[in-house]
Each structure stands twice: as structure tokens, then as C-alpha cells.
Amino acid sequence: MTTSQQAQADAFRALHAVNAPTLLLPNAWDAASAQLVAQCGAKAIATTSAGVSWSHGFPDGEHLPCATHLTATREIIRVAAIPVTVDVEGGYSEDPDAVARFISDIIKAGAIGINIEDGASPPDLFAAKVIAVRALTKKTGVDFFINARTDVYLRGLASPDSAVHETIERAKLYKNAGADGIFVPGLVNLVEIKEIATSVQLPLNIMALPGIAPVQTLAEHGVRRISVGMALHQAALAAAKRATKEILDSGHFNALFAESITYNEMNAMFSPR
Asked: What is the DSSP letter of 82?
């Protein structure tokens, strides 16, 4: 732990304060996208596990080798001047101690937080992972932010009538285990958002999806943090696909140059190392 890392950890935690604006996190997948997000004015950088995995030739879902994940994390943090929180999926193990060892390497890389998910794992097992990670972070001296993601909505782990209750119960369990925030991807209904936000004493993080309410409305219903998952990476790849198809199918280059960042602008984002 360095002084600068602790300062970034403190700054990141302050971004979740009740009186702070809702934290917006356009997720990055490599050093270039992370620097671009920062240059656009983001207060922090969150990685997307899907984007990091795809950019290294692996499917999402804990198929990315841990060593590759760590290298990608170091590359992002090397260029970042703002806090970086890392999506570690489920921690790459069902063994809480193994998860904690992996997170130890993530902390050594300079991260100040993680997003870790329960997925299809039993809630008690996931809580044990959070407990192990929290015990580790106390030893490092970094005020590390653990954002606990529950997939109740995303995976349909409960019926529509019981999804709110199940989410609240899991959030309380994870809070008691040491989580600092609760992430509920797939949650879009404003009534349900407000009920969950007011029932759980943790900052509520949701994921941007098509048709979701504007930021101000979400904030009024208790949302403290909004991330976009792999959507920014998908948008970038969609633009590349359009340009590539036009070149190959018609021999034209209109889409390629319709909108782009200049060489000088991009190059200026980085300093020689």
C-alpha cells in the first residue's frame, strides 16, 4: 500500500457519500479506454470483465487466466491518475482463501476496489468470500471498497414476486460480511429500486440498460452508482464492425472516417515510460 493508493481509496469511498452526486462509471477494458474515460471527466475507472476477457481472446465467465487479468489491471493502473476498481467476476475460485489471495495481487497492482459477484453460488459461500477478502484488506491498510454484486435479477434467481425480498436479504448478508456497496444488474423498475435502496444501508449500484430512467430520476430513487458493464466496449466494437463491413462489402471508407479521435489527441493521452 502506498500513500497515493490510500489517497485514491479515500477519494473513491467519498464518491459514494450520500451527499455526493451519483457516481457514473463508463467501464473500461484496457489502458487506452481507461485513459479515454478519464480524459472525458470520469471520477473513477471501473473495469468490465467481459471487455477485458474479449480483448484478450477469452469468453466472459472466469475463462481469462488470472495472470492475464493481473497484467491487464497493471496496464490500466499504470496510466490512471484516478481510482481504479476491478471487476473480478466471482473471484476465480469457490475457495474463499484462494479468492483472497487473488485479490491480494489485485491490491498490489494498485486497485482500490473490486466488483465481485455471487452468480449462481449459494449466498453463504459468497458471503464467505467477502469475509475472506475483508480480512485481507484490513491487513493491507488500504480502505478497499468491496462492491458486492448479486445476480438475482440478471440470472432470474428468484420469481418476480420475490426478487426484491431475495435481493434485500442477500444485500444484508453481504453487508454483514463486509461489503461496502451492493450492485444489482438487471434492476430497472423504479419502485423496486427505491424499495431496495431504502431497505439496505449500502450504496446501490445498478447497470445501465436500454430504456433505463435518466440519471437524475435514478438518483431520486436512491441509486448511488451507475455502471455500464460491457456496453461501452460493445459500442466501440459495433463502430469497428460497421466500418469494416463497409470496406469489405462496398469498397468505401465513409464509416471509417465518419467519427474518430485524431492521432495526436490519442497519443497525447500517454506519456513515455
From this structure: S
pTM to 2 decimals? 0.95
Q: What sections of the chain are H helices per DSSP?
A: 3-14, 31-39, 49-55, 66-79, 96-108, 123-140, 163-177, 190-199, 215-220, 231-250, 254-258, 263-267
Q: Beta strand 223-227 with 204-207: parallel, antiparallel or unpaired?
A: parallel
For the stretch 197-222, pLDDT in tens is 999 999 999 999 999 999 999 999 99
Q: Name the H helices within 40-83.
A: 49-55, 66-79
Q: Is the Cβ–Cβ distance between 128 and 93 less than 8 Å? A: no
Instruction: Look at residue 133 and give its three-state secondary structure.
Output: helix
What are the φ/ψ torsions at residue 216 (nearest 5 degrees)? -60, -40
Q: How many CB atoms sit inside 10 A of residue 160's CB?
A: 10
Give 156's DSSP letter. T
